[in-house]
Amino acid sequence: MNITILFGTESGNSELVAEDLGAELGAHHDDVEVRDLQSFDPSELSAERFYLVICSTHGEGDLPNTAIPFAEAFDAAPPELAGVRYAMFGLGDMFYEETYSQGSEHLDRRFAERGAVRVGEYGRHDASSWDLPSDAALAWLPGVLAAASVPA
Amino acid sequence: MTTVPRPQIAVVGSGPSGCYLAQAILRALPTAELTIFDRLVSPFGLVRYGVAADHQHTKAITRQFDRLFQGGGARFAGGIRIGDDVGLAALRDAFDAVILATGLPADRPLDVPGADLPGVVGAGAVTRALNAHPDAPTRLPALGGDVVLLGAGNVALDVLRFLVKDRSGYAESDVADEALAGYLAAPARRVVLVSRSAAAASKGDPQMLRELAALPRARYSVPDPAGPADPASPAGPADAGDRTAAARAAAVAALVDPDRGPFPGPEVELRFGAAPLRILGTERVTGVELDVAGERIVIPADAVISAIGFAGEPRDEVGRLIAETPPDPASGRLGAGLYRAGWAQRGPRGAIPENRASAKLVADELLADLASGALAVDGDRPGFAGLPPETRARAVDYEHWLVLDAHERSTAPADRVRRKLPDHDAMVGIARGDAAAPHPHP
Ligand SMILES: Cc1cc2nc3c(=O)[nH]c(=O)nc-3n(C[C@H](O)[C@H](O)[C@H](O)COP(=O)(O)OP(=O)(O)OC[C@H]3O[C@@H](n4cnc5c(N)ncnc54)[C@H](O)[C@@H]3O)c2cc1C
Ligand SMILES: Cc1cc2nc3c(=O)[nH]c(=O)nc-3n(C[C@H](O)[C@H](O)[C@H](O)COP(=O)(O)O)c2cc1C
C-alpha cells in the first residue's frame, strides 16, 4: 500500500504523531510519506494512495492554523475525490467541551463531500486524558490498516 | 556549496520557543549539535512557571519537548545563566550560532500615578509564587479583602480564577500549597476586574471565561454599559475573529446570568470599558480611580494586581540586549550567527502554539544564512566542550532533571501531581543526587 500521512498542527502534537506513524509504517511498507498540510495541495490527492489524516483543533473548534490554507485551497478548487480512501485521527481536548475534536471534522466533511471514503474507526485523542497522542494513534493504526486492506 | 560540517548551535532558554526552535533545526539539520541552556535547573520556562497549576492539560506539551532530550538530539545545560555565568561573546566563540529564547520575565510596569505604592503587585509575581518559581517568595503578599485586578487577558483570567477558587479547585494540580494556603487563610471578599476594552473585544479566550462560569464559585456582575453587547458584525459572513468576540460576549453573559446561582466565594465586578487613572493611598494602596465612559469612579482596594503584560529584565548582558532591542515579529536575526525567538523576539504576546510558528521562521532564517554562507561553519567550533570545565561541571543535564522530576512526583502530597521545590540550590542538590537532599515530611 502507498501511504501518505498528512498532518495539520498548531502546537506540534499532530506532527509528532505523524512522524511516529510514519516510522511504524515505514518498517512494513515501501512507499510511506509524511506531509505537512501546509505544503500539500488538495489537487495532489489521488486514488493511488491511502491517506492517514492527523489533525488537531484550535480556536473555537476550528482547524489549526497550518491546515487553514489547505482548506481554503480545497474550497477554491474542490478536487474530485472518487476512489480516494482515507482514515482520520483527530486531536482535541475534552476541556473544550462544546467543540471537542472538531478541527479534524472540518477536513473529514470536505473529503466526504467530494466522494472520498473514510475507512476504519474515526480515531481521537483527548489531551485531558493522560495517554500520549502517539500511543493512542499507534493503537488505532492496526484496525485502520485492516479495514483499508479490504478492497473497496 | 560543500557539505556542512556539524554546526554547533546554542539555544539560550528552554521555554516553548527554545524547544520548538531546537525541533525545527534538528528536523532540517539532523547533524547539528544542539545545546539548550537555561538559567534554571528545570527545562520548559513558562510552561512550568507561568501556565496555571490547575491547567495540567496545557502543561502536557512538555511531553512533546521531552523527545528532544530523550533521543540525545539536544543537550540540556541547566543552571547556567548566559550573559553572566558565561558571557555572550564566549558563547558565540564556542558555537557557530546562538539563538536567544529568553522570554520576557518582568511584569510590565503600570504607568499611572501611585503605581509604586505598597500593595500594587504584578501578576507575574503572583503566578510565579503559585508555581513555586525559585526566584519568587514562597508566600504571596497579603492581598486583603478588596482586590482590584487590572487587565482582562488570559493571565488576568488565570489570576481571577485563583482569587475565586477554594482548595477543592486544585485536585491533580501542582500548585504551591504554601502560597495557596496563605491566600485561602484570608481570601478576597470582593474582586474588581478592570478592562479597557468592551467585553466582546477584551483579550481573554472565551474558554477561560466559560471555565469561570462553570466553576461553582463566586458571584459576577457587570455594572457598566460596555458589558456583553451584541458583537454581530454589520454585514458579511462572520470570520473567526467575530466568532471569538461573539463567544466571549456570550461567556460573559453566562457569568452574570441570574440563573447561575448564588455560589460561595467573592463578589466579582467585571468593569469593561474602564481605564485606571491612578492608584490611591499614602502608606499603601487604598483604592483605584477609574474613568468609566468619562465618569470618575473610585473603587476601594487593599491590593492591586496588574496583569497588563510582560517586559524584558536587564539583569544580565542578555537580558539587557533583549530589553533594549525592540520586538520584530518579521525577523529573529540580530546579526549573522546571532538570533532571537519567542517572546524575546516578538514581544509578550501569544500562547504556546504561536511560539512554534515563530520558531520555524527563525530556524528558516538560520538555514538560509547557512546556505548563503552568511553563517560559515568551519567545523572548528567546540560547542559545549569549549566552555570552561567548571561551567560544564556545574551544568545540570537532562538525566539530572529526570531525577528531580521523579523526586517531585514521588513526594507530591495526595491530590497533587507533583511538589515543586521553590529553592534553586535544593533543586540542584536533588537533581545531582546529593546525599544531603532534604526529605519530605511523612
Ligand atoms: C503567567 C502566564 C501564564 C501563561 N499561560 C499560558 C497558557 O495557559 N497557555 C498558553 O498557551 N500560553 C500561556 N502563556 C504564554 C506562554 O507561556 C508563552 O507564549 C511562552 O512561554 C513564551 O515562550 P518563550 O520560550 O519565548 O519564553 P519562556 O517560556 O519565558 O522561556 C524562557 C526561558 O529562558 C530562560 N532564560 C532567561 N534568561 C536566560 C539567560 N540569561 N540564560 C539562560 N536562560 C535564560 C528562562 O529561565 C526560561 O526558561 C502564559 C504566560 C504567562 C506569563
Ligand atoms: C488555544 C487553544 C484552543 C483549543 N481549542 C480546542 C477546541 O476548540 N476543541 C478541542 O477539542 N481542542 C482544542 N484545543 C486542544 C488541542 O486540540 C490539543 O491540545 C491538541 O493536542 C493540539 O494538537 P497540535 O499540537 O497538533 O496542534 C485547543 C488548544 C489550544 C492551545
From TrEMBL, chain A:
InterPro entries, per the entry: Flavdoxin-like, Flavodoxin/NO_synth, Flavoprotein-like_sf
Keywords: Flavoprotein, FMN
Pfam families associated with the record: Flavodoxin_1 (PF00258)
Positions of the Flavodoxin-like domain: 3-145
SUPFAM superfamilies per UniProt: Flavoproteins
Cofactor(s) this protein cannot do without: FMN
PANTHER family xrefs: NADPH OXIDOREDUCTASE A, NITRIC OXIDE SYNTHASE-RELATED
Protein name per its UniProtKB record: Flavodoxin domain-containing protein
UniProtKB/TrEMBL annotation, chain B:
Transmembrane helix in keyword set: no
Keywords: FAD, Flavoprotein, NADP, Oxidoreductase
UniProt cofactor(s): FAD
Residue spans of biased composition, Low complexity class: 223-243
Segments for region (Disordered): 220-243
Coiled coil: none
InterPro entries (alphabetical): FAD/NAD-bd_sf, Ferredox_Rdtase
Name of this chain's protein: FAD/NAD(P)-binding domain-containing protein
Originating species: Leucobacter allii
Origin organism lineage: Bacteria, Bacillati, Actinomycetota, Actinomycetes, Micrococcales
